[in-house]
Write a structure and sequence with these properties.
By secondary structure, this protein is of the alpha/beta class. It has helices at 3-21, 25-38, 56-60, 104-109, 119-125, 127-133, 143-151, 385-393, 398-414, 420-434, and strands spanning 88-89, 91-96, 99-102, 114-118, 155-160, 170-176, 182-192, 197-206, 213-223, 228-236, 242-251, 256-265, 268-277, 283-292, 297-306, 312-321, 326-335, 342-352, 358-367, 372-381, 449-450. The protein has one domain (3-450). The model is unreliable at 82-86 and 440-451 (pLDDT under 50).
Length: 451
């Protein structure tokens, strides 16, 4: 036991009974395996393989509280939905820190065959179902995942029955609201049975006057044969917040999964995507967009493994960094000997809009089969001065011209979002972000929905 991890191991050992009381079933059984997996380990630090620019050790080092006894923290949820963004017709669910809060629109309009509920409640009421899925995709070999598994007491469980297709997006809003600095371990479990279809919009926000917090989020996605899942994840959190999000995806024959991570406002953010393509004829689209300014730190890491033939994956990540913002991208594609006829492509493109912005990029290919089509690449540059000059000669002020070029640069990522209304909203949000609007949930730029 060493470093930042030590305080959480001691807390768990001294509060094991109380932590178990906040949850049930598989969550409690697996947390003890996680405790054993952390023995003698430490959290990743700057310079470790895959963490060259981001220290998880430093992120978790502060003396943070943990809501072990499930105290209801104050949060004016209604104030989070005062904005003028064009409405997106969605089914709304809210997470206040790590506590699930269903909305009226969700309870009244959720179709048969689709479950959206508290993960802790599901573990108590549907033990066999949760036992079958919980922890099957997420690896306890990753210290951050093991720590989350050890401490998480709640989250959200989404299950779509065989052949069921939800025709409206499910919107999951994560609200950080705490009077004191806290660690928020949150768990998300998404299960799509054969032929199921679902679109999910997630939004991360910090409530006004909330203290700083570290969000530890582990997302498990199990995509059954022929299923389809579209996820758009938008982060608009405050500068004093830290987020460590780890997403694990398991895909079976014919599954189609598209995930887009969009960081518009943040403090320090690390997003990890681990995709295991176990089935044939799968389609995986993984992308991300980051706009950084001030001293923001944004890190995306991807690991896509092809374990079966005749499947495709596409990765596209783009960053625009201004002021003293720092960005990082590390991605890998692994094609095993059992995966001939794979097509896998990875691209990372970045713009540094100031002399003090920094970008670290490290794309990788590990190919163990000759019958494949794979490529990877990365570029980092500045805004096109000739284009800026041309636009200025046409009467466009330089600042507006800069914003227009940045918007055009991000359009390729925005266009990968498959839900029309969400794609249109994202264009609006990017325009606001590049125009200098900040993120505040009391004047929320994201979450107005039809309820």
């Amino acid at each position: 036991m060493m470093g930042a991890l030590n305080q959480y191991l001691e807390l768990f050992d001294n509060s094991r009974h109380d932590i178990d009381n906040g949850s049930a079933g598989a969550m409690n059984r697996l947390r003890h395996d996680a405790r054993a997996a952390l023995e003698g380990r430490r959290l990743p630090d700057t310079g470790d393989e895959g963490f060259e620019k981001t220290s998880i050790e430093a992120m978790f080092a502060p003396d943070l509280g943990l809501n072990i006894n499930r105290v209801a923290l104050p949060c004016d949820i209604a104030s989070a939905f005062k904005c003028g963004v064009p409405n997106v017709s969605s089914l709304l669910a809210i997470m206040v820190n790590d506590t699930f809060v269903p909305s009226a629109t969700l309870l009244n309009n959720l179709p048969d065959g689709i479950t959206v509920m508290s993960l802790a409640r599901a573990a108590a009421e549907r033990p066999e179902e949760i036992d079958r899925h919980y922890g099957t995709a997420a690896s306890l070999d990753a210290p951050g995942t093991a720590l989350n598994t050890m401490l998480a007491q709640d989250g959200i469980y989404i299950h779509v029955d065989r052949g069921i297709k939800l025709d409206r997006p499910l919107q999951l809003v994560n609200l950080t609201s705490t009077p004191v600095p806290m660690l928020i371990p949150r768990r998300v479990l998404i299960v799509l049975e054969e032929g199921a279809s679902l679109s999910v919009l997630t939004c991360d926000h910090t409530m006004k006057d909330s203290a700083s917090a570290v969000s530890s989020q582990v997302i498990e996605i199990l995509a059954g044969p022929g299923s389809s899942l579209n996820v758009c994840d938008i982060e608009e959190s405050a500068p004093d917040q830290s987020r460590y999000s780890q997403t694990y995806v398991t895909m079976h024959d014919g599954a189609d999964v598209s995930i887009g991570g969009m960081t518009l406002h943040c403090g320090t953010t690390r997003n990890e995507y681990s995709v295991d393509i176990r089935g044939q004829h799968c389609q995986c689209h993984l992308g991300g967009m980051a706009i950084g300014s001030g001293k923001q730190h944004i890190d995306n890491s991807s690991d896509v493994i092809h374990s079966a033939p005749h499947s495709d994956s596409r990765q596209l990540f783009k960053y625009v960094l201004d002021d003293e913002a720092h960005g990082a991208f590390e991605g890998s594609i692994v094609v095993t000997p059992d995966a001939p006829y794979t097509q896998a492509y990875q691209s990372d493109r970045n713009i540094l809009a100031s002399a003090n912005a920094r970008m670290h990029t490290k794309p990788q290919l590990l190919i163990y089969n000759d019958e494949v089509k794979c490529s990877h690449g990365a570029t980092t540059g500045q805004l096109d001065e000739q284009a800026l000059f041309y636009m200025q000669t046409r009467g466009i002020p330089r600042q507006q011209a800069r914003m227009m070029l940045m918007q055009a640069f991000m359009a390729e990522v925005i266009d990968t979002v498959r839900v029309d209304a969400v794609r249109d909203r994202l264009r609006y949000l990017v325009e606001r972000r590049l125009a200098g609007f900040d993120a505040s949930c009391n004047d929320c730029s994201t979450c107005h929905t039809q309820q």
